[in-house]
Amino acid sequence: MRFLPYFVAGLAGAAVAAALLLWVPGLTKPAAPDFASNPAFERAVAQYIAHHPEAIQTAIQALQDKAQADSAAETKAALVAHARALDHDPNDLVLGNPKGDVTLVEFFDYRCPYCKRDLETVTQAVKADGNVRLVLKEFPILGPDSVLASRAAIASQRQGKYAAFHTALLASPVSLDADSVMAIARAQGLDVARLEADMKAPQVNAVLDTNFALAQALHIDGTPAFVIAGQIVPGAVDRASLEKLIAEARKKTG
Asked: Which H/E stretch holds residue 20?
């Protein structure tokens, strides 16, 4: 298997060589940055790997760590840049205490089982605290039926029924489609004909477009995802964890 290090070095080329330069003792970076055209350097790398095969794993780990650090820095900068869009977009759907001292943002999909599971957790934590602004970002990523449900929910604001309709959609045990969404709307006292007309309003598209662009900027690609006090919390949370996040956020803003 003596050929393996040379084969690996040939395949990895400049990427592995550059990573090894970060930590391999005794290797001097050649004057020319084009490692592929420097056979002597490639032989030195291959010989080192032959005696230290763990170098490949260490180099790859170093690259992964750097990528994660770069991504974290980019996300942190994006949170600062988009802070107002997150917390105070004029089209925000706000529940809880509109004047609360802590803002909790949730990206969710009505057909997401984890979002459904978190409904009670979020509702109870926000209600028990009494001083949390809950900003809901409709983020329908699970197909056309999810989009339809979100469009209906956004449009329900015009009839002043968003809070009840939102809760009913998330709490529904049935699979959401056009018929079930309208049945739930009707049960919540919405004028279905008016709702269907309002769903075509440009504002509905604007809300969804804004939310998707914001999620992309923050590297949010799943639901639920929470944003609080400048940090993103992906996935479902239990009540104790959520209450801890709220308390920590209050200390930061206090």
From this structure: helix 3-20
Q: Which of 28, 62, 81 is the C-terminal boundary of a domain? A: 81
> 214 vs 28, which has greater pLDDT?
214
Q: Residue 195 in contact with residue 165, Cβ under 8 Å?
A: no
Same domain, 238 and 205: yes
CB 207 within 8 A of CB 154: yes
Q: How does DSSP assign 179-242, residue by residue?
A: HHHHHHHHHTT--HHHHHHHTTSHHHHHHHHHHHHHHHHTT--SSSEEEETTEEEES---HHHH
* Cβ neighbours for 239, distance < 8 A, ≥ 6 positions apart: 121, 124, 125
Per the structure, the complete domain to which residue 96 belongs is given by: 84-253
Beta-carbon-side half-sphere exposure of residue 163 (alpha carbons within 13 Å): 8
| Coil vs helix vs strand at 35 | helix
CATH number assigned to the domain comprising residue 144: 3.40.30.10
pLDDT category at 10 given cuts 50, 70, 90 is: very low
> Could you tell me what percent of the chain has a pLDDT over 70?
83
Give the Cα separation of 150 and 161 in Å (integer). Answer: 14
Q: Kindly list the strands in the beta sheet with 102-108, ordered across the sheet, starting from the edge strand earlier in the chain.
A: 93-96, 132-138, 102-108, 225-228, 231-234
More confident residue, 88 or 56: 88
Between CA 149 and CA 169 the distance in angstroms is 8
